[in-house]
Design a protein that fits this description.
This protein is α/β, with parallel strands linked by helices and 245 residues long. The protein has 7 helices and 15 strands. It has 2 domains: 115 residues, Rossmann fold; 103 residues, OB fold (Dihydrolipoamide Acetyltransferase, E2P) (Beta Barrel). Keywords: Phosphoprotein.
């Protein structure tokens, strides 16, 4: 049985890319697409596809509100050009969150996740060939031809400095001569939070928060930038223990 898919995005080139990716997978079936979110919602509720690829920033009806108005058991994969919405997306029970431009590899990783939510497809042999979420990154370092493997779980924070970034680990740092915007899509959205124009922090490494200061487990203190404050505290708020005082 195929996974039926629907696309809602106000950018036609994104629809075109997703249509191409879907057509290349034998067990995916595109049942429709729409650049108008209101018309798309009507179609999704009528067709009840297994999966909808859903943009967030759209006129008339944004993706978050769209998600709450779906009346079927359709699973949602959000597609956005902004990683700041990722934590809101997962609080809406999204299966995955894809950053634009969507690579084929990242698309297939999302499909892998979707299959685990659709029981009758869990036995498909094709799943074995879908790449799983990687837990590391390689960077060029030192001697020409040398690549250093860095596990995401070992990273405390990533610091941006002009057109280079520094991966800060427990006892060592590694410099990569690339802008931060090239690194962000490769970091797991569920673990890494941008808290400042210069800092992306591994949430697992946070010890505590004091006002606008984020203190890591290795005693590093990072400033929380005003631009990222709301999205940061919105994410943190999902895990705050509610008390009576």
């Amino acid at each position: 049985m195929n996974i039926t898919c629907y696309i809602v995005d106000d950018e036609y080139h994104v629809i075109s890319t997703l249509r191409e990716y879907i057509s290349e997978v034998p067990y995916l079936e595109l049942v429709g697409f729409n650049s108008n979110p209101e018309k798309g919602l009507v179609e999704v509720n009528r067709l009840a596809p297994d999966l909808v690829f859903l943009d967030i920033n759209m006129p008339m009806l944004d993706g978050m509100d769209f998600c709450q108005l779906i009346t079927t058991s359709t699973k949602v994969v959000f597609v956005s050009g902004y990683r700041d919405y990722a934590f809101d997306a997962f609080s809406h029970n999204a299966v995955d969150y894809l950053l634009k431009p969507v690579s084929h590899k990242r698309f297939m990783q999302a499909i892998h996740k979707v299959i685990s939510f659709v029981p009758m497809l869990s036995g498909k042999p094709s799943v074995q060939h879908i790449p799983s979420e990687v837990s590391y990154i390689y960077i060029k370092h030192g001697v020409k031809g040398r690549l250093i493997k860095i596990e995401f779980d070992d990273i405390y924070y990533v610091e941006s400095n002009d057109n280079q970034v520094v991966f800060n680990l427990e006892k060592e740092n590694y410099i990569a001569y690339v802008p931060l915007k090239n690194v962000l899509p490769q970091l797991p959205e569920t673990s890494f939070l941008r808290i400042h124009k210069s800092f992306v922090v591994n949430h697992k490494k946070i010890s505590h928060i004091e006002g606008n200061m984020v203190i890591l487990k290795n005693k590093t203190i990072l400033q929380l930038g005003n631009t990222y404050k709301d999205s940061f505290f919105k994410y943190v708020g999902l895990s705050v223990l509610k008390t009576n005082k």
